[in-house]
User: Fold Oxygenase from Alloalcanivorax balearicus MACL04.
Amino acid sequence: MNPDGPLIVGGGMAGALLALLLRHHGCPSVTLVESHPLPTEAPPETPSFDARSTALSAGSLRVLEQLGLLAPLLERAASINEVHVSRQGRLGLTRMLAGEHRLPRLGAVVENRWLGYLLVNALYRDDAIEVRAPDGVQAARRVSDGYVMTLNDGGERHTPLLIAADGANSRTRDWLGITARQQDIGHDALIANVAVAEPHQGRAFERFLDDGPMALLPLPDQRMALVWTGPRDQVDAWMAMDDEQALDALHQRMGAAPPALTAIGERHRYPLVLTEACAQAVPFGAVVGNAAHTLHPVAGQGFNLSVRDLAALAEAVGGAAHPGELAHLSQWQQARRADQAWVTRASRQLPEWFRVRQPLFAHSRQLGLLALDLLPGPRRDFARRAMGLQ
Assistant:
């Protein structure tokens, strides 16, 4: 049996983007298997007040630009032109500005259903990408030159490179023989959209509270996306508040910097269970997206880190005659190690760092914020790293 091209299990944003990037880098064919139907119809032009969204860094926008997707994405996205970072109850504020980096924007926030539609639409426009959705994989069998996958209908696909993109509880990762560490940190993330009284002007706000970080991110049409993480009992209390109480609590915690909030949409929560695969590459196999790592949502780094992983993987194997060779995959894994370690460490340590209440440490922490604001060099370096530009 001659092997086909790479086979990706999981048709979410990570899997769909990887399929497009593999083709962009010269892969002759790709198969994508997803258990749920994929969105093939454009969402309504009027945005949903309760829609979920994703913050994309400048580096992620560059990747989408390579695929010709940036212009249509920006039609329904809000640019991030400025980021304010502060600490509740303390002096000290740092600002990150697009102009400092000679960029048109630091990033953009887009509703997931629009980003998903753009990716899926691009998949179906490429005849060399076989999309099997809804479909599933029943079993995987290792052979001498790859894997043979048994699909739900009993048919088989032979692939030289099996890619797990099916989430934090990935069954494909198990088939590859890769284990994962999971840590429930006892906090939940609360997500909602809010309406603002005046235009946000592309400003985003990250506020470190005693009980966890809170972010407000710009959305189109005078809306902002709220992401707050904290202990589960406090999230219980927030979920039980009526809208007026929730808005009052937000105003008290965010301070005077953001625009006044006038309405809050449906609130959602999800537990923060951090996942880290013990490896991301084995012979004829790779692990990406949430199957590889899930992070604390502080600074919105999770999906953006995955985008950098995907772009590097596609570049490493897209034009290779034997994409599943361990030499290619090990080189990719090694090249991504430093960036992954920095982002993982920062996402875990920042919330804890800002929660420490000892006076001396709290004072030095605020001096750190002031130093970032006053010294353009360190601020630029930190921001460019967070944006995936170095």
Q: What stands out?
A: The chain has a mean pLDDT of 87. The two ends are 42 Å apart (CA to CA). Residues 326-355 form the longest helix (30 residues). The CA atoms of residues 22 and 254 lie 42 Å apart.
